[in-house]
Specification:
The chain is an alpha+beta fold and 286 residues long. The protein has helices at 3-13, 21-49, 60-70, 92-105, 147-163, 191-231, 240-280, and strands at 54-57, 82-87, 114-117, 129-133, 140-145. A five-stranded mixed β-sheet has the order 1-2-5-4-3.
Length: 286
């Protein structure tokens, strides 16, 4: 598929809320091609550098999400449709050495590797070094992370699932929408009290969501400080234990936020169930 064909496909994919089956099939065909390149590239890294890697193709939902944010024409320039990840130890020196080895492995390609150091300019807390390589002229993104950077990224991804994917792009967490609740009028409950409880619950939940995001970004800054201090040979900053505790706290917080979402769904289900039972109950006034 040529670049111009990819551009037109990207535009069509987001032209409506539901992409056409033919366009989804074309995207699948494109991803299949990228997948074959990714497989050989992964083996090249594993055998050439004796490094353990994980790899993935970007899924359709994530691609559509990204296209809607940046415009359909960007499909032709997406450099992370095929991705690989290398997770090393806790320090940046090893990370830098790994980046150099990856670059050297792909320097013989027609297009030279491109290094993007997100440690210098973290993206909403996310920090790593990305190396874009071009085997057969196809871009493959290789993420090189320290153990701390990887742990943080995994937690933040789960947090985004709980409070809204937009936080990955610097947006505010999503609010629980009271307007999506079924109408509770006519049910045998105190409606004003119920409404107040719902409002209070949503405000409390939103404070929890924003607090979790702020805490996650603070932990990212602490990790960066720790790694930079270690790289500069500064002693006396032994915070590994506290970082472990901070990340465990974030994990727990994410789990609580997921549980809140589950309770919200239960409120929906309960109202609908009560309404259904009332509708089926015999009319005692008859």
């Amino acid at each position: 598929m040529t670049k111009s064909q990819q551009e037109r496909l990207g535009v069509r994919l987001i032209a409506s809320s539901t992409p056409a089956e033919a366009d989804l099939a074309a995207l699948h065909e494109l991803l299949t091609f990228y997948g074959s390149v990714l497989e050989t590239t992964s083996e090249r890294v594993r055998s050439g550098l004796a490094i353990k890697t994980t790899s993935r193709l970007k899924n359709t939902g994530t691609i559509l999400e990204k296209l809607r944010r940046s415009g359909g024409a960007t499909l032709k320039s997406m450099q992370d449709l095929a991705g690989m990840r290398i997770v090393g130890g806790p320090d940046r020196k090893e990370q830098d050495e790994t980046v150099e080895r990856v670059v050297a492995l792909f320097e013989g390609e027609t297009r030279q590797p491109k290094v993007i150091d997100r440690r210098a300019n973290p993206v909403h807390g996310y920090s790593a070094v990305h190396v874009i390589v071009f085997p057969e002229g196809v871009p493959v993104e290789i993420q090189v992370r320290t153990a701390w950077q990887h742990e943080w990224a995994e937690v933040f991804e789960k947090l985004a699932d709980a409070v809204g994917r937009g936080i990955r792009y610097g947006e505010e967490p999503e609010r629980l929408e009271t307007s999506t609740l079924p109408d509770a009028s006519g049910l045998p409950i105190d409606i004003p009290k119920f409404n107040r409880s719902v409002v209070n619950a949503t405000e409390s939940d939103y404070r929890q969501r924003t607090g979790a995001v702020e805490s996650a970004r603070l932990v990212a800054r602490i990790i960066a400080l720790h790694e930079l201090s270690a790289a500069d040979g500064i002693s006396g900053l032994d915070i590994d234990g506290s970082l472990d505790e901070d990340l465990r706290d974030l994990h727990d917080w994410v789990e609580r936020l997921h549980a809140t979402g589950t309770r919200w769904n239960l409120i929906h289900a309960t109202i609908e169930r009560v309404r259904s039972r009332l509708a089926c109950a015999p009319d005692e006034s008859a």
